[in-house]
Amino acid sequence: MLKNLVLVGFMGTGKSTIGRQLSKALGYPLIDTDARIIAQQKRPIADIFAKEGEEFFRDLETQVLHSLTEDKCHKRIIATGGGIILREENRKLLRELGFVVWLVAQPETILERTSRNKERPLLDIEDPAERIRTMLEARNPLYDETSHLILETTSLSFSEITTGIIESARYHYGSQ
Ligand SMILES: Nc1ncnc2c1ncn2[C@@H]1O[C@H](COP(=O)(O)OP(=O)(O)O)[C@@H](O)[C@H]1O
Ligand SMILES: O=C(O)C1=C[C@@H](OP(=O)(O)O)[C@@H](O)[C@H](O)C1
Ligand SMILES: [Mg+2]
To answer: Residue 71 Cα, ligand 2 centroid: separation in angstroms?
Structure first.
């Protein structure tokens, strides 16, 4: 596979976890855009949202995508944050980076997985179930227009997801 493998999808669909597994399975380095922002800013995402607000965080995401497209490196796994597709500029950059996989899970599963910790400021509210539904409605068309492959993960194991992505990417790129 020549290009990068890019994971997009809603919070809790497994982008960071599957990113780590793909990185191990293929021997490609992992770049998690959230982890890169946390390292650059030397503070948690919740702190960035609380002090500078969401748009500042979105600017940081766009900067990370620009640096990844400009370095012209290939054969990396890029796990993104769930809101990275909100900007048209980002959607274009993501497709330039490589094969874009959209991980999907049912709203109830997303709620269960994201309620395990308080790391996601957008869901750290009284009624996250309702917010998940409205955000999914707004974002799903954007994931759809950005991605080359959609994968429903709700009832799949990590290894089934990882194997499915590798097989689809190989098929997409042929024997490259
Ligand atoms: N297919 C899956 N089956 C079971 N648990 C999962 C699955 N995908 C993700 N999880 C769990 O959901 C939580 C959120 O996963 P994470 O990789 O952080 O998602 P994201 O980066 O998309 O927000 C983690 O506890 C992870 O272990
Ligand atoms: O969907 C979003 O807007 C966000 C998703 C988070 O990443 P994960 O999708 O990895 O949880 C993180 O970037 C931030 O809390 C905002
Ligand atoms: Mg993540």
So the answer is: 24
